[in-house]
Write a structure and sequence with these properties.
Helices cover about 35% and strands about 30% of the residues. The chain has about 130 residues and is α+β, with helices and mostly antiparallel strands. The chain has a seven-stranded antiparallel β-sheet with strand order 2-1-7-6-5-4-3, with helices on both faces. Strand 3 and strand 4 form a beta hairpin. The protein is globular, with a radius of gyration of 13 Å.
């Protein structure tokens, strides 16, 4: 399966995600994305930095983060996952060994359903070496 197929089939086609992108683990290369879903280099750099931040209160937790120019409040941040919320919509970011999945869900989707969809793809990619 191509990276674009993971975005289109494993994320967006579930109905739990409306747009997504997959980056390399350093955030320096976009491997696939939904049309019109553009995550700026500074935005993905902030996300990548959050995975390495081992402070008691991470910078991203106190300041929030941006994805596709939208500001999200951080609701979860650890060494694998980053969840953000803006009103009823949100973003789920999952880091695997070689990739970073960035997925947006609309206000009509429950956050748990979106998180499960992205985390399951992350688990699968890790299981096959990515």
């Amino acid at each position: 399966m191509s990276w674009q197929e993971y975005v289109d089939t494993s994320l967006v086609a579930t109905g739990n995600i409306d747009k997504a992108a997959i980056f390399n683990s350093e955030g320096t290369s976009v491997w696939a994305s939904s049309p019109g879903f553009t995550v700026a280099p500074a935005e993905i750099k902030s996300v990548v930095a959050s995975f390495a931040d081992d402070s008691d209160v991470k910078k991203i937790q106190s300041e929030g983060f941006r994805v596709a120019t939208e500001k999200f409040f951080t609701i979860k941040s650890d060494d694998r996952s980053l969840y953000g919320k803006k009103g009823k919509e949100g973003v789920v970011v999952v880091k695997t060994k070689q990739a970073i999945l960035v997925a947006h869900y609309p206000e009509t989707v429950q956050p748990g359903a979106a998180a499960t969809t992205v985390e399951q793809l992350g688990d699968y990619l890790i299981s096959v070496g990515y």
